[in-house]
Amino acid sequence: MLTKAGYLFSRFLLSVKRIFSNIRFFLSDLYIYLEKKIRIFGKIFEQFKGYFVDLLMAKRGRYQLPFLNLSLLILVVSGILAAPYISAYYPDVSGQNVLSAIDSNTSGQMLGTTYEMSLVTRISDKPRDRVEEYEIQSGDTLSAIAEKFAVSEDTIKWANDLKGKNPVLKPGEVLKIPPVTGVVHKVKRGETVYSIAEKYQTESQKIVNFPFNDFIDLDNFTLAVGQTLIVPDGVMPEEKPSLPRPAAPQYLAGGSGKLLFPANGTISQQPVWYHMAIDIANSQAPDIYAAADGNVIYANCLSWGYGCHIIVDNGGGIKTLYAHLQKFYVSVKEGEREVKRGQAIGKMGSTGRSTGTHLHFEVRINNTPVNPWSYLK
To answer: What is the value of pTM for the model shown?
Structure first.
């Protein structure tokens, strides 16, 4: 016979067991619920991440700084909270594991595992956003320095006022190295993006496309007097460029011909690391043609960046983008989205971040922009 105390104790244990069982079921259901919600959020994020990126790039990245600061804060807090758990499962610098395994056969003796750890620093090749200083070393030549920083020799000459075909470089002296091939210009009163581009025999769109050039007003690209402006591919008026721009046949010879050339006009900018596209200029604003068969997945207008643009999914992981249009002939609606190679899909314009009538044409492989010349006929 159970005593009253024993009966109450057994009832208590049964109640505790039921509580833990309910908690286990609750946590299991909570896990399934959260997993489902996270998956749904992930799908929605994948669909709308392009708009999120456009928002961050609005007004030349006005929202990027607070976003990055918030992300860094979240990362630091997460690191602080996760540090004790991480250190519990990974060895410290001395090689001694923080949590040692307890061997049940050895009287509870602590066993440590020693690891040989090697720390390797990988230096990433990041785009340069400003003029850098370089101290000349013994044996340096102008061509070697130019190759090291991926700019032309004339670019270094112009930035440092070096004269002659083979200027003398003295070890210990400091050279100014621009971030890209071209000219570094200090803005004077009355100058505009257009007048500076004309002075240095380049396109105003190239100045606007360089991501680290800043402007007072992004609607008309107003410049501040005294600011430093990078003029990509610019040429000093008194000298000719030592490295001419690559001729079109060099690109055309290597193209696969898979895509049709999308518009009539002249090439106003070639692909570079910060502008992986070609700009085709034509003041007559001709029609834009689909480079290949496909389906329109985006046809909309933004007040910044690409402006009015179309994205066509050409299949096989290939997408083509046509930007700065003034008019659409197709849409994402059923019956209007399918396009054929050579079909007119829009009219060239100058919407968004543009200084003149032209087409910004991109080829994307698995959503990553690549050099269009590899695919054009």
So the answer is: 0.49
H or E element that contains 139: none
Mean pLDDT lowest among 53-62, 93-102, 245-254, 343-352: 245-254
71's tokens = 């992300």
Q: List, as own/partner pairs, every contact residues 140-147 make where C-beta atoms lie below 8 angstroms and the sequence separation is at least 24, other chains included.
A: 140/169, 140/171, 141/169, 142/166, 142/167, 142/169, 145/169, 145/175, 145/177
Residues 149 and 186 in one domain: yes
- Measured CA to CA, the distance from residue 262 to residue 285 in angstroms comes to 13
Long-range contact pairs involving 308-316 (C-beta distance under 8 Å, separation at least 24): 308/346, 308/349, 308/351, 308/352, 309/352, 309/360, 310/345, 310/346, 312/339, 312/345, 314/259
For the stretch 322-332, pLDDT in tens is 999 999 999 99
Residue 98 forms part of a structural domain:
no
Q: What CATH code is carried by the domain that includes residue 173?
A: 3.10.350.10
Cβ neighbours, 10 Å, residue 323: 26
Q: Which domain holds residue 34?
A: 11-89
| Residue 24 scores a pLDDT above 70 | yes
Separation between Cα atoms, residue 245 and residue 204, nearest integer Å: 17
* Average pLDDT of the residues in 21-43: 83
In a domain, residue 111? The reply is no
User: Is 119 among the domain residues?
Assistant: no
The per-residue pLDDT for 348 is 95
Task: State the DSSP code for 374.
Answer: G
> Do residue 226 and residue 316 come from a single domain?
no
Q: In this structure, are 340 and 368 located in the same domain?
A: yes
For residue 36, how many other CB atoms are within 10 A of its CB?
10
